Automatic annotation (TrEMBL):
Residues annotated as domain 4Fe-4S ferredoxin-type: 154-185
InterPro entries named among the record's database cross-references: 4Fe4S_Fe-S-bd
Protein name listed in UniProt: 4Fe-4S ferredoxin-type domain-containing protein
Length: 219
């Protein structure tokens, strides 16, 4: 029987087979007081044991339909990620007898701060636009995660070049809400735009992606 780190590596390979473009793992206990949890004063994980396997799906602007949000249904891209996560959890149970489950998307439903988790799992680095810049994809990636009853090796978050170093800040200039007034992201200003979108009466909503689509990272 393989040990837990071997199963985690196998699960990351399996996640790619099941359709994830990127995947990585982080110990759940590291997320409890991750930066967003501290900032929001809300625990960043309901679990302080086990492993969160983070899955990412590229949202190419050529397929804007992946990101169209509907009340009660979320987006098609998130449904694809959710199915990938459920299939991965089932595979872990069947292949290794490991308890695993898809983590809810929303933090208030027991979710985790997915962008923090993606960075801590080594998938990418946080950009000035408050999005994870993923090598090869830039900020055009959405995330979900699976919790698995596996011991994750403690690894420090990856160091490396700051992805925005030297960039003129196309993201902040593109924002229609001036949500980076001091250079730092203002959640309130961005949320005001999202809330206006959601009450617009449109059936399927194409949320603002200006700070994402303006970013040259990832090619
Ligand atoms: S999503 Fe739109 S409103 Fe929100 S920060 Fe980005 S550009 Fe600004
Ligand atoms: S546009 Fe430039 S500053 Fe903004 S996130 Fe992308 S690389 Fe960073």
């Amino acid at each position: 029987m393989p040990n837990d780190p071997e199963i985690i590596r196998a699960a990351i390979r399996k996640a790619h087979e099941l359709g994830a473009d990127v995947a990585g793992a982080v110990a759940a206990k590291r997320l409890v007081d991750c930066p967003s949890a501290v900032a929001e004063k809300h625990p960043g994980s309901q679990e302080n044991r086990g492993t969160c396997i983070v899955l990412g799906l590229s949202h190419d602007p050529e397929h804007p339909e992946l990101d169209l949000w509907e009340p009660g249904r979320g987006t098609p891209g998130d449904r694809i990620l959710g199915n990938t996560g459920k299939n991965l959890a089932r595979w872990l149970q069947e292949e290794y007898g490991v308890r695993a489950r898809l983590i809810p998307y929303r933090i208030e439903d027991g979710g985790i701060y997915l962008k923090d988790a993606a960075c801590m799992a080594g998938i990418g680095r946080m950009g000035r636009n408050n999005l994870v810049l993923v090598p090869g994809y830039g900020p055009k990636v959405r995330f979900r995660a699976v919790w698995a009853d596996l011991e994750c090796p403690e690894e420090p978050s990856p160091e490396g070049d700051i992805p925005c170093a030297g960039c003129e800040g196309y993201c902040t200039r593109a924002c229609p809400m001036d949500a980076f007034p001091t250079g730092r992201f203002s959640r309130e200003r961005c949320l005001a735009r999202m809330n206006a979108d959601r009450t617009s009466g449109r059936r399927r909503i194409d949320h603002c992606r200006a700070c994402e689509l303006a970013c040259p990272a990832g090619g």
